What we know:
Layout: H1 16-21, H2 23-29, E1 55-63, E2 68-75, E3 90-99, E4 107-116, E5 125-132, E6 145-154, E7 169-177, E8 183-185, H3 186-189, H4 194-197, E9 205-207, H5 215-224, H6 229-241, H7 254-263, H8 267-275, E10 285-293, E11 299-307, E12 322-331, E13 336-346, E14 357-365, E15 378-388, E16 403-412, E17 425-431, E18 434-435, E19 446-448, E20 454-457, E21 459-460, E22 462-470, E23 483-489, E24 496-497, E25 502-510, E26 513-521, E27 529-530, E28 540-543, E29 547-552, E30 558-567, E31 574-576, E32 580-584, E33 590-595, E34 602-603, E35 608-616, E36 620-628, E37 633-640, E38 644-652, E39 660-669, E40 672-673, E41 685-691
Parallel strand pairs: 21-40, 34-41
Antiparallel strand pairs: 1-2, 2-5, 3-4, 3-6, 6-7, 8-9, 10-11, 11-14, 12-13, 12-15, 15-16, 17-18, 17-22, 19-20, 22-29, 23-24, 23-27, 23-30, 25-26, 25-28, 30-31, 30-32, 33-35, 35-38, 36-39, 37-38, 39-41
Helix pairs in contact: 5-7, 6-7
Amino acid sequence: MSSLKPFEREAIAKEFPKLRQNFKSLLALNPNHFGNSGKSSLVSSISIKSNTVYERLGCIGFQPELNMLKAVIYIHQTTGYGSGLCGIGSTEYVRFFLSSDDGVTWQDQGLTSLQVYNVDHASRLEYAVEKAINPAQRICRSENLLRVRAILSWEVPPPADPNWLPVWGNRSEATIQVAPKRLVKISDVVKLDANVLALLDGAQTLKLKSLDLPLEATAKAYLEAKVPVKRTLHPHLQAALANPSALTALASNPQLAAIAKIYAVDLEKISDQLLFSGDGNQEYEQLTCIGLQTGGFIDTLVGIINVKKSAGFNGGLCTKGSREYIAYYMDFGSGWQYMGTASVRVHDIASIPADGLRYTAYLPTDLRNYRKKCEQAVVVKLRAILSWETPPPVDPNWVPAWGGREDTTVLLSPLSNKEDTDKLTPFITAAGRVSTDKINPLTGLATALSPFVVNQAPFGGEVMISGYILNHPNYSSGGAKLRYKVMISSDGINFAPAIESFDISVDRWVGAVVTQFDLRQEVDSEGFYAYQMDAIGPDFTFVDENVLFRFFTASRQGAHWIRIDVEDPTTLAIIPSNSVKLMIDNAAPNLTFTMDQTPCSDIKVGQLITGTFTANDPHMGDVQISVAPFGVASKTYSLSTDTQKAGTWQVITGKLDKCGYVVQAWAVDRTIVNNTNFGNSSAVQSIGFCLR
Length: 692
């Protein structure tokens, strides 16, 4: 079992504080000042790569049922992070990558971040961040493991390069298990005669159930895999103990007796060992690190679990498997307070790697009553107790039969003025996944480094509107759901209610078990949507990404304003949120693309091919030029502004084979389209030529 250990802070090199203070200025003068840009021709002034004296990425975990990655970050020092809590602090960025071929190739999954500050603390602080992913699923007969790589970097967003090394920060890897498909198409699993299949809807789905494996078969397999009898008996023993008479009838329990017979043990002789086995065995699972995820109205308690063995988890992916439970406690100064229990489903995985599989079980929680204004830092203790198949009782000192305990310290985020209220208060926190404090209130354009890098970017396509309503009723205790309208304006003065339906993804916690489902949001007869989030226990309901509305802007252009109007259920008064201005741009750039030589003409190998391009857009991005197949085009800008890109291009043909080729060009703007950083693109223009 682990308790909070004395923390020895690593010594800081004498030059580091000044380098941290001037970090961005030094990079502006020389992007390779610290020598971490391996392909740069610039000479470094000092060599610092993957330094973890200030911060370190501790571990990564995955919740297969929710497709959510979590990473825990250690903050070691009390200074070196920009400012105290009343300032802007500094940013820790984490970019995630996935590999399905054991690290041969990697696919970028995007960026997330958190703010850190100069704060006095005796022990290291442990934060957490998250990233939702959408990995391809397989039917349960096929184990689906992915390798995850995460790169932590202070103040510089990691590029989409899995081999990039940060100056301050580090890389970390883990293997995760993807949940199997539970809904499959008929055509994917059933082989029918073509004449019969023509009569069916092949796209119709079937729901796959979890198998209950025969007890004897499981016990025999576990005996062969050298799973100890105490482990194999454990879940059945817990079920037996739910019967008050079980204490005197263990030997007569049919499930326990069947397992004992296969293992050739006497239940009566080992009953004391089974009943009083709270020794915190961590051979099968271990709680590797814990942390607090901040950055919003709702905080999240995060635990990362390392599953170490291939068997002993009650069956493979086609079965129900078993659950790892984590009970969370926090000490705000007057002793341990139970915060709740979370869980994650695990299975026997034959292909488990040597370093195990990483899971996470996390618990959203409202800590607003414990947070203080920025002048007073709130550092508290966090404890987590991991237990396999047995939900921990409410006892911060309980020792599980299988599992362990971890302690750490965490920093609560400061309480903002808008959160410091007991009144019903709505507010919009993000649009298009960009925080509203990164959207210029005068222009409606976004400039941000996370969750993607954008500069003076408008919005287009679907714009996801996220936010909260503070002090909502407790729905799980019978309170009626709040109602709200989404108000939209094209002039900032005259607002009209939105009536479009949209989908949200809902996570519902009942006890320690979370289920996820999609929900269609539609206005009622009076034009109101229902507010689905319930952050008040004992059961919780959360909407993924806190979606309040999906603003479908395809038919719109120019400045628009959006706000949320909430109905007070007592007085029926309307309470408005903050109004957010968004610049909408759904128009693609205009592109003119020419070749100096005659298009479709014959050209001799070695001859230089040249041309010009001009692209215009109110929010101009870039012009891309390529050659197919296997050629390279270079371009030079003669004009580059926020609204226009113009210049020349050329193709050197000396090393190209005699063949037909096509030069292709397209222009993109800076628009955040459908909540990503991919711009509106012009149609691809093509010019052909033949090399003779």
